[in-house]
Design a protein that fits this description.
By secondary structure, the chain is α/β, with parallel strands linked by helices. The protein is 30% helix and 17% strand. The radius of gyration is 28 Å and the shape is globular. Bound molecules: 1-deoxynojirimycin.
């Protein structure tokens, strides 16, 4: 009897073991009907067709109205799995018809495009959307973009871009959610939910793509495509946080980045693609390369030739190749030589088919023509206006110059960005049209009446160095009660490959502002740009300063609403704003160093004494000529009213790792106008197994208050929220002393403290 039981137990364990050894895809398909469908499609595909699924091709613009026979034949033979940038819907349907009806396996094509911050209705650039500190609004904007893009047959966007960036020189900071992992993670989840909707197979949903995986925003020196050097704890705690959030929100695809990360190009990076994405996070969608990023591993000096590049990328885990042809040219031969296996290829194809099934492409492969064109509808424009309003960050407001009164007799509208409909759309707005864009000049004229608005650009564009427009600008300024100067950078000065080493106002804009200031008329400056702009040299000549990023289609009305007080400036900085470019990288959640600056130690360089000992200026971590403080801290943004913080309370000051802490504070509107405060919660872990940041954002709430109204704001802090990666790469919360702040930005706030002690009873 005993031996029979042992025998049965043995059999049971052997079968369990065998189950463990089978590829997980086999096990999945036994239980999951979707996996069974995928397997049945896979079973009817030949090797060439499987390789074809991994190919994403672009259609040359010349072809866009006429599909050349070579492309038809490639689709017919199953050599293409996806196209990017096909915009002619008849052509899309014709290509799809060939794929579905004439190719052997009948697998539908997936059409992708960069729908980054809107489609025809363009929202503020992602950095501006991050400045809204409003994930709900960002989700709405992404859902609108998806609704509009799907009417054009697009079912996959290469967004959200969720690269943390601490460097305003980097042109792609414009596309990023800023510097903070907590805010960026909320934004990442919001974009994914908005694009993908409740159900990916809905005809108004598009598959999202978390990009660029990973470390791209840490390009050394802010020069695009440059190497990223990030120690693994920092990578995991800061740079990967939004990617994990996107994965948790159900993102369908990941795009690998161009850069090398700690010496290994992302396209061949096994740590990123295998260990983290698949093994730890269990991601079951597919990974696409960036544009030719696989073959660029040759230029990186990581691969000898195209074949080697295909080998390294496929073995690392890139499922689809964008534009390059290395998979198409070499995967077959790599399989023959045993450098790569057909079952590995099957898994790549499974990942791709899984998303095509989830999108419902097998049931509904063609462009949905049943819906009326929903682009630029009133509701879409209203959301674009609302998000632009909420993205506007008021940085200076001397003597409460803003909001302006409607009773002004004349306003002077000056500057190269006052009426630049294309430029205010910002980078990556392929489908927005300047004809649909409302500029500040138009909106201000509409608001005040044309006769009250004196307009002259002063400069033809931001880098215009000619001073021919100066005298006209000065004469207009003299006749006005207030000057509204719209400056900044055109769209082309930020975005991919468009980094700048000097991030002040380009050209002679500062000179013009100085000339205008001399007239004695107060100067309001509105900056439109893809990044923070250093204003140290000009700030004293500006009475009020507002950052508008590139605000999109409805930027003009949004700016007018805020300037004239119909709406409040709703934005807060999602990035630290440097005084001078030499302070970069500058970010609020930095470690303390062993010699932290105690006070602002900045003294003008001309006043630094000579002939005195080295230590007379203090041996602390700062710049002699720029101190250590930024111009404006992370989280900063003024309002049209004032708020007061009182009564910071912690539910306990001594907790264990199992406990939850509640932090509350009472916020009152002490001004005479209604207004919204973004109440922010920061924490500092004083001692760690690796050094900890001086502050970390752990929560925020947007709170609307009437004059005189007060509200108790509560945050819940779980001890897991305090976890970080230690020297052994374990994700842990360590007992110890913590500070906590509630306040308006990363440099202010009421402070309290608590201790985590796991030995308390
Ligand atoms: C290259 C860019 O890095 C990426 O963000 C974009 O999605 C692709 N090109 C496709 O346009």
């Amino acid at each position: 009897m005993k031996s029979t039981i042992s025998y049965i137990l043995l059999l049971f364990f052997i079968s369990l073991l065998l189950m463990q050894c089978r590829p997980s895809s086999d096990r999945k398909s036994e239980i999951d009907p979707l996996e069974r469908k995928i397997d049945s499609v896979l079973a009817r595909m030949g090797l060439e067709e499987k390789i074809g699924q991994t190919a994403q091709r672009r259609v040359l613009s010349l072809e866009n109205d006429l599909i050349i026979e070579e492309t038809r034949e490639a689709v017919r033979k199953g050599e293409v799995g996806s196209f990017l940038n096909v915009m002619n819907t008849d052509m899309m349907d014709e290509l799809q018809r060939i794929a579905v009806e004439e190719s052997h396996s009948g697998v539908p094509l997936l059409f992708g495009r960069d729908v980054i911050h809107g489609f025809r209705t363009v929202f503020p650039i992602p950095l501006g959307l991050a400045a809204t500190w409003d994930p709900g609004l960002v989700e709405e904007s992404a859902a609108i973009a998806a609704q509009e893009a799907t009417t054009n047959g697009i079912r996959w966007t290469f967004a959200p871009m969720i690269d943390i960036s601490r460097d305003a020189r980097w042109g792609r900071i414009a596309e990023s959610p800023g510097e903070d992992p907590y805010l960026a993670s909320l934004m990442a989840g919001a974009y994914v939910k908005g694009f993908q909707g409740e159900n990916l197979s809905s005809r108004t949903s598009i598959a999202a793509c978390a990009k660029h995986y990973a470390g791209y925003g840490a390009a050394e020196g802010g020069r695009d495509y440059n190497s990223a050097i990030i120690y693994e704890q920092l990578l995991r705690d800061i740079y990967l946080a939004p990617f994990k959030a996107a994965k948790d929100a159900g993102v369908s695809t990941f795009m690998i980045s161009f850069n090398d990360l700690n010496g290994v190009p992302a396209s061949g990076n096994r740590l990123l693609l295998k260990t983290i994405l698949r093994d730890e996070w269990d991601f079951d969608g597919f990974v696409v390369s960036d544009w030719e990023s696989i073959t660029e591993m040759i230029d990186h000096g990581f691969c000898t030739d195209e074949r080697d590049a295909a080998d390294k990328a496929a073995n690392a885990g890139v499922d689809m190749e964008m534009v390059g042809r290395s998979y198409e040219n070499h995967l077959g031969e790599l399989i023959q030589e045993g450098r790569f296996s057909e079952s590995q290829l099957d898994n790549m194809v499974r990942n791709i088919l899984r998303i095509k099934f989830r999108l419902g492409l097998f049931e509904n492969p063609y462009v949905d023509r049943s819906r009326d064109k929903v682009v630029l509808s009133d509701t879409h424009l209203a959301t674009a206006r609302k998000s632009a309003i909420q993205s506007l960050v008021l940085l200076k407001n001397k003597n409460n110059l803003l909001p302006l009164s409607d009773g002004l007799k004349k306003v002077a509208v000056i500057g190269p960005m006052a009426d630049a409909p294309y430029e205010q759309l910002g980078t990556w707005s392929f489908d927005g049209d300047r004809k649909d864009t409302r500029t500040p000049l138009h909106a201000i004229r509409e608001h005040l009446g044309k006769e009250k608005v004196l307009y002259t650009p002063g400069l033809a564009f931001s880098r215009d160095r000619s001073m021919v427009g100066y005298s006209q600008a000065v004469s207009v300024a003299k006749q006005a009660d207030v000057i509204l100067f719209f400056g900044g950078e055109e769209a082309i000065l930020s975005g991919e490959a468009h980094s700048r080493a000097d991030i002040s106002l380009p050209g002679v804009q500062e000179d013009l502002i100085r000339e205008l200031k001399k007239t004695g008329t107060p100067v309001v400056t509105v900056i439109m740009a893809g990044r923070p702009i250093t204003v140290n040299d000009i700030i004293d000549d500006i009475d009020a300063l507002m950052m508008a990023w590139h605000p999109g289609t409805m930027g003009g009305p949004a700016i007018a609403d805020v300037l004239f007080g119909e709406a409040e400036p709703g934005g807060r900085l999602p990035v630290t704003w440097p005084c001078v470019v030499g302070q970069i990288p500058i970010y609020y959640n930095h470690p303390n160093t062993g010699r932290p600056p105690l006070n602002e130690t900045f003294i003008p360089i001309e006043e630094i004494p000579i002939g005195v000992g080295q230590s007379s200026l203090g041996n602390t971590s700062h710049y002699l000529d720029a101190g250590y403080l930024p111009h404006f801290p992370f989280g900063y943004g003024l309002t049209y009213t004032t708020f007061d913080y009182r009564n910071l309370k912690l539910s306990d000051t001594l907790i264990t790792l199992k406990d939850t802490l509640r932090v509350s504070v009472t916020v009152s509107n002490t001004g005479s106008r209604e207004g919204t405060e973004v109440v922010q919660l920061y924490v500092r872990d004083h001692v760690g197994d690796i050094v900890r940041p001086v502050r970390e954002l752990k929560g925020f709430q947007r709170v609307f208050l009437q004059p005189g109204e007060k509200k108790k704001i509560c945050f819940v802090l779980h001890t897991d929220d305090l976890a970080f990666h230690n020297q052994d790469m374990e994700h842990v919360t360590e007992p110890g002393i913590f500070s906590v702040w509630t306040g308006r930005n990363a440099h202010e706030g009421l402070e309290g403290s608590f201790t985590i002690d796991n030995d308390i009873k």
